[in-house]
Amino acid sequence: MASPIAAQAFRQRLAPNLIKTSKTTLTSAKSHANPELLHGAIALLNPTVQPPFKAIRHLFDHLRANPTAASALNNAYPKRGIFKSAAIKNGIADQKFTIDLSPARDSLISEATRASLASYGLNDVISFFNNTAENHVSTILSQLGKVSSIDLSQVHKDLNMNFRLCDYNPLTANPTSSNGCGEHTDYGTFSIIFQDGTPGLEIEAPHAPGTWIEIPGDATVVLAGWCAFILTGGRVCAVRHRVRRIPGVRRLSAVLFVAPDLEVKLKPLTEFTNVEFSKEIIGGEVNVSWFKDVMGKRWRRREGNLEVAERDEGIFSQDDEIRRLVLGA
Ligand SMILES: O=C(O)CCC(=O)C(=O)O
Ligand SMILES: [Fe+2]
């Protein structure tokens, strides 16, 4: 999708202060495939702080074992809930549990609930994400801006962020399933994925669809989503990824998602684009809020968290359909 040159530049120019090139080597899911297949589609981050994985494990264990605590947390955001555990009953959906936070949702959690979850790690988790946002988000945004020659700061004034914890726990409805998180492309500008050392994350080679590259379990990965692809006129590629489970092995991750401001029109911020976009995109008919909503339905279906009434809508169930919306082909 994006030109190899821009993608290469994304990796190289992010390098000076962000990429750890020394110990981390990328290997391919296919035994002899070349890691260069990634063409710089992702960057590796040397983070200032690591997630508090011990606290994250405690928090998931506590919420899973205590439905009252889980309901109290979910009541802070009744529209969708915060702790998602559909995989306890649903063996076809992604076999993981998640805790979905954001600065806005954080402020809705009552003092009583916050206090009751403090000793199970909630505060540590929130300060980790706030710290990461403070230390890395604007730098990554400006580096992405430099490699694409497009000023992304003008459409990221509100810092629209989401924080997600994932628990790929063997105690789900389908313990032998290798599907931790089905293949998908994140909707926003970029995501930072922190891992607890357990492998499982795989990236699809942007120029060799169907070839999946295994990412080492200790790497912290920055990858771009659909909004970056559209805003930069295809100069930054949106990267498909997935998580495979190793039966019997628990894996934890923490993900920080950054997206443009909700009212921003999703159209290239340049007339010189690398690809041809759909007339809806060029015409500025799609804004971030609408796109997030549409994408959200798609990922909630995959994750088994879609409300019954929404489940039958049948639209946008595939990455392909999003691609059609964006590229019109
Ligand atoms: O758990 C991971 O490593 C990745 C999760 C992910 O891609 C997502 O939640 O969008
Ligand atoms: Fe993702």
UniProtKB/TrEMBL annotation:
The keyword Protein biosynthesis does not apply. Residues 158-260 form the Fe2OG dioxygenase domain. GO terms for molecular function: metal ion binding; oxidoreductase activity. Pfam families: 2OG-FeII_Oxy (PF03171). Keywords: Iron, Metal-binding, Oxidoreductase. Belongs to the iron/ascorbate-dependent oxidoreductase family. This is Fe2OG dioxygenase domain-containing protein. It comes from Orbilia blumenaviensis. The lineage of its organism: Eukaryota, Fungi, Dikarya, Ascomycota, Pezizomycotina.
